[in-house]
């Protein structure tokens, strides 16, 4: 690749991702629906067009920076984990008084559905992701066509993200504000480096994925610096990080749309991912609504975002698409299940070494999850609108339903005869679990089945169930339009459809 080509790819990638996200925001403008549900359709569609037209091959190797952006999931999540740590500290233990916000955002709509500062956030998020991942890969070279260009990408990514600011936003002290953004970028990079070093150190004992350690470090930092005012880096990543990453993931996934159907065993993987999305999402919501007596979007949205570590719902909540209460609660619920991931990834890491799932420990985790879920539903049923009790119940539900969904899925797929690597792809897509997705993307399961390459396939497999997201976000949008109440009859139908679909995919495919 020539030097001038890297600039072309950088600008072209920015254009593709921004167009996908901005079109999605325009489509849902004026409604209660989240743009995430449109991003998947346009992303997959664009990827398939590139493949069918001959401009790209499966995996989008011709546009490496799109793939690079799609591989920055962990960076986008570090901001969420940090915010979650802050919320946990300030909710449950010795809260610090938050400093007065020093920024008034530009509310002028510059593109249908997108305000001035929001457009800057999306653009800045792209350059932040590119800059940080490039520096990280300079330190830990992965080997590839972009290796010699990472210094240049790092320079432009960091430089542009620092100087890019909305001139119409009112900022008390721009120099101090921009400095906070620089500190945040350095902190994210430090978290990544420490996470990698710790993961490498413990690898001889247990091969835990990078995302596990970055979560612990960033959440802990959030608890320590719980009065930190977000600078431009945090604001951009919280608003635009996940949409930009998902757009990249879906475009790459779209190029593999046709190829994936020809691979042996992929039909069952995709079928479980597709119907599993209905099952785990709407059965979980049904438990909260019918047993927990908590039919309120302020409970349902953060509860399901946390309990499934659901990438789409997480992005919608942290961007404020499902209301301010969900935006405040979601980081807490997203963080909490990750503290239980020491059990999840420990069992999975040992399973990878064995080449097969540890079924008995998996079943024990499911039982533990059921206990937490029962306690959660009991707490929520008695909450009577008291915020502290609702948060307590949501925390237990996030832990419990997560354990059931992750290991319940693995156990079901194991009994259905699916190997561990395919099961990891199927399960991560069925619950849109960004932790499992990042682990598969990082190659955690790649050694299990020599016939497939899960890091190469996961973008598409993970994207497929997002076709269910019009239903997911449609239900949340309907709830927001109806005073926060989700329609119970439709909910029951979707949950039953998920149960039947999962049973069909496990038994007959």
Structure in words:
The chain has helices spanning 3-27, 36-52, 64-70, 73-92, 116-139, 150-163, 174-202, 210-224, 232-255, 257-260, 266-291, 297-307, 311-318, 324-339, 341-354, 359-381, 387-415, 420-430, 434-441, 454-463, 469-481, 488-507; strands at 103-104, 109-111, 114-115, 170-171. With 509 residues, it is mostly helical. The longest helix is centred in the middle third of the chain and has 29 residues, at 174-202. The protein is globular. The model has no long low-confidence stretch (mean pLDDT 85).
Note the main sheet.
Answer: 2 strands, antiparallel
What structural class is derived from the secondary structure elements? mainly alpha
Figure out the total of helices. 22
Question: Could you report the average pLDDT, rounded to the nearest whole number?
Answer: 85
Sequence of strands across the biggest β-sheet: 1-4
Order of helices and strands: HHHHEEEHHEHHHHHHHHHHHHHHHH
Radius of gyration: 21 Å
């Amino acid at each position: 690749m020539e030097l001038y080509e890297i600039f072309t790819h950088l600008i072209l990638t920015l254009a593709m991702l921004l167009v996908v996200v901005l079109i999605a925001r325009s489509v849902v403008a004026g409604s209660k629906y989240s743009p995430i549900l449109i991003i998947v359709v346009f992303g997959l569609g664009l990827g398939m067009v590139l493949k069918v037209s001959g401009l790209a091959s499966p995996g989008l190797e011709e546009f490496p920076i799109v793939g690079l952006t799609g591989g920055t999931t962990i960076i986008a999540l570090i901001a969420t984990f940090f915010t979650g740590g802050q919320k946990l500290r300030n909710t449950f233990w010795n809260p610090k008084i938050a400093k007065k916000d020093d920024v008034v955002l530009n509310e002028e709509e510059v593109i249908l559905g997108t305000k001035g500062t929001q457009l800057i956030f999306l653009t800045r998020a792209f350059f932040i992701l590119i800059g940080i991942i490039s520096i990280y890969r300079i330190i830990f070279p992965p080997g590839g066509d972009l290796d010699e260009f990472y210094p240049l990408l790092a320079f432009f990514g960091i430089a542009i993200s620092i100087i890019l600011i909305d001139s119409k936003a009112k900022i008390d002290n721009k120099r101090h504000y921009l400095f906070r953004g620089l500190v945040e970028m350095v902190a994210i990079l430090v978290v990544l480096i420490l996470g990698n070093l710790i993961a490498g150190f413990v690898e001889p004992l247990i091969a835990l994925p990078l995302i596990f350690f970055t979560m612990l470090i960033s959440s802990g930092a959030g608890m320590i610096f719980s009065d930190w005012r977000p600078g431009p880096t945090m604001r951009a990543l919280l608003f635009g990080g996940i949409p930009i990453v998902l757009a990249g993931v879906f475009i790459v996934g779209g190029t593999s749309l046709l190829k994936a159907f020809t691979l042996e065993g992929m039909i069952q993987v995709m079928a479980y991912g597709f119907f599993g999305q209905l099952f785990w999402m709407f059965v979980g919501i049904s438990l909260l609504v019918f047993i927990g007596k908590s039919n309120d979007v302020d409970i349902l949205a953060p509860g399901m975002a946390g309990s499934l570590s659901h990438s789409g719902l997480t992005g919608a909540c942290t961007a404020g698409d499902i209301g301010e209460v969900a935006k405040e609660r979601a980081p807490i619920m997203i963080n909490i299940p990750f503290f239980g991931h020491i059990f999840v990834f420990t069992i999975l890491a040992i399973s990878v070494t064995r080449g097969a799932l540890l079924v008995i420990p998996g079943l024990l985790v499911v039982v533990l999850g059921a206990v937490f879920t029962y306690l959660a539903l009991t707490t929520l049923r008695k909450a009577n609108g008291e915020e502290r009790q609702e948060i307590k119940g949501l925390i237990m539900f996030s832990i419990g339903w997560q354990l059931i969904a992750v290991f319940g899925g693995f156990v079901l797929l194991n009994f259905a005869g699916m190997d561990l690597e395919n099961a990891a792809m199927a399960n991560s897509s069925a619950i849109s679990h960004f932790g499992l997705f990042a682990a598969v993307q990082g190659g955690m399961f790649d050694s299990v089945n020599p016939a497939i390459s899960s890091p190469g396939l996961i973008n598409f497999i993970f994207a497929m169930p997002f076709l269910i997201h019009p239903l997911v976000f449609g239900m949340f949008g309907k709830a927001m339009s109806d005073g926060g109440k989700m329609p119970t009859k439709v909910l029951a139908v979707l949950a039953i459809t998920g149960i039947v679909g999962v049973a069909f995919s496990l038994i007959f495919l």
